[in-house]
Design goal:
- The complex is a heterodimer.
- In chain A, 61% of the residues lie in helices and 0% in strands.
- In chain A, helix 2 runs parallel beside helix 4 (51-69) and helix 5 (96-104) packs across helix 8.
- Chain A has 8 helices and no strands.
- Chain A has helices at residues 5-8, 10-21, 24-41, 51-69, 96-104, 108-119, 124-131, 135-153.
- Chain A starts with a helix and ends in a 13-residue tail after the last helix.
- Chain B is built from 8 helices and 8 strands.
- In chain B, strands 1, 2, 3, 4, 5, 6, 7 and 8 form an 8-stranded antiparallel sheet that branches.
- In chain B, a hairpin with a 2-residue loop joins strand 6 and strand 7 (212-220).
- Classes of the chains: A mainly alpha, B alpha+beta.
Chain lengths: 166, 248
């Protein structure tokens, strides 16, 4: 039973949830809510279509609805969550912890699109379907998300456009 | 001075371009060091994000998530599972139907291969018995069990790396099953069985088993079947590469 396609996607759903919720317990609650919805709606899933995109879209919607219902958590959606100073990275590769911290400073919108593209390696049109936005928006949001992440990684003080990175 | 549009650079980084366009852009980058640097930096960022979150995938899933739905909506989970099993049953039934309606001694090679692919390719935690880092041992072991000299083709140039392999039982005895995966997690399996008695050679044959495409051929005493959920043309290219490596 644990081989059911939905079950095999749970590790990925958890990872996506953590990127969204920024807290591992909240994240697992989000996974649980998503799974309950997915089991209920499984008969609506069209065999042959991408199950991962379908599940991720459910999670995205569950999350957005919960955010609407919980005003307090809305601060998680902003891009200016204060954090301790991020060490500038050296040229011998990015520090992984720094990267996660920098990711956490991004807005949910930015974090989520980076997770879908960089981590899940979804195609732009799959991302568009998952988030219910046009491909053009996927590309512009992605570009801004990378720019922001880059800034946070560089210490968050200077605004260095990517083109100037030497 | 930047010569290439930012959107195209982004598409290049995320592998969203047609091969011809990609080659053209990569050519242009050679004379555009700033753009080339930007592409390099963006690719590095992708790699770093992947590395930073890689370990998360391997954490054990808490039991409450495996049974999610059972507390509040247990019956729904039951229906979901029942529906899921029904679908799996339909699919397997469809695959096995040949065995029921024809007097053949067993399932055909492509059908057996497609079933093995359908069963093992979606596995997250245990897709293989022996991992690729023990490739030498894997190949020696399977060769011994099949009583033939096997090779695990190298498909890195086509974007597929060996995940590992396992021993299966087929209608003619032991079967070697090799699994490959690309960076997007798409998987291919190579099913190698020994043919009873007969020995010969056939051309490539194609079979579509539900969502799974299979190219299969017989060479000497071995039957080969390459399976993947992809278009016929794409799989044919890979099947050719496999064949050439097995018959240098």
């Amino acid at each position: 039973m644990d081989d059911h396609p939905i079950v095999t996607h749970i590790p990925r759903l958890r990872r996506y949830a953590r990127a969204l919720a920024n807290d591992r317990y909240l994240a697992d609650d989000l996974v649980q809510d998503t799974l309950e919805r997915a089991w209920k709606k499984y008969h609506l899933w069209r065999p042959g279509s991408d199950l991962r995109a379908w599940l991720f879209a459910i999670m995205h919607n569950v999350f957005v609805n919960q955010m609407r219902g919980r005003r307090l958590d809305l601060e998680l959606l902003t891009d200016e969550t204060p954090v301790v100073a991020v060490r500038p990275t050296q040229s011998d590769g990015l520090e992984l912890d720094d990267l996660r911290r920098a990711m956490m400073r991004l807005s949910v919108e930015h974090r989520e699109i980076l997770v879908l593209v960089a981590l899940e390696q979804m195609k732009y049109d799959e991302v568009g379907k998952t988030l219910d936005i046009p491909v053009g928006t996927v590309m512009s949001r992605l570009s801004r998300a990378r720019e922001r992440l880059r800034q946070h990684l560089e210490g968050g003080m200077s605004v260095v456009p990517l083109k100037a990175v030497k | 001075m930047s010569a290439i549009a930012g959107e195209d650079l982004q598409r290049l980084v995320d592998d969203e371009l047609e091969p011809a366009r990609r080659l053209a852009l990569e050519g242009m980058l050679e004379s555009q060091p700033e753009d080339a640097e930007r592409v390099r930096a963006l690719k590095e960022l992708n790699t770093a994000i992947r590395a930073a979150y890689a370990a998360d995938l391997h954490e054990p899933v808490p039991a409450r998530l495996l049974s999610a739905g059972s507390a509040k909506a247990g019956r729904w989970r039951f229906y979901g599972l029942a529906a899921g099993l029904f679908v799996v049953g339909l699919f397997t039934g469809w695959l096995v139907r040949g065995a029921m309606t024809t007097p053949s001694p067993g399932l055909s090679l492509p059908r057996q291969a497609a079933i093995a692919h359908a069963v093992y390719a979606p596995e997250v935690r245990h897709p293989v018995e022996v991992e690729a880092r023990e490739e030498e041992h894997l190949v020696r072991w399977l060769s011994k069990r099949l009583g033939t000299d096997l090779k695990a083709p190298k498909l890195g140039a086509l974007g597929y790396e060996l995940v590992g392999g396992r021993l299966l039982s087929g209608s003619n005895g032991p079967v070697a099953h090799f699994m490959y995966q690309d960076t997007r997690g798409s998987r291919l399996t190579l099913y190698v069985s020994t043919q009873r008695g007969e020995s010969g050679q056939t051309a490539f044959r194609y079979s579509q088993e539900e969502r799974i495409s299979v190219f299969y051929w017989i060479d000497g005493r071995n039957g080969y079947a390459l399976s993947g959920e992809m278009e016929r043309e794409q799989l044919l290219g890979i099947a050719n590469a496999v064949y050439q490596q097995l018959n240098p």
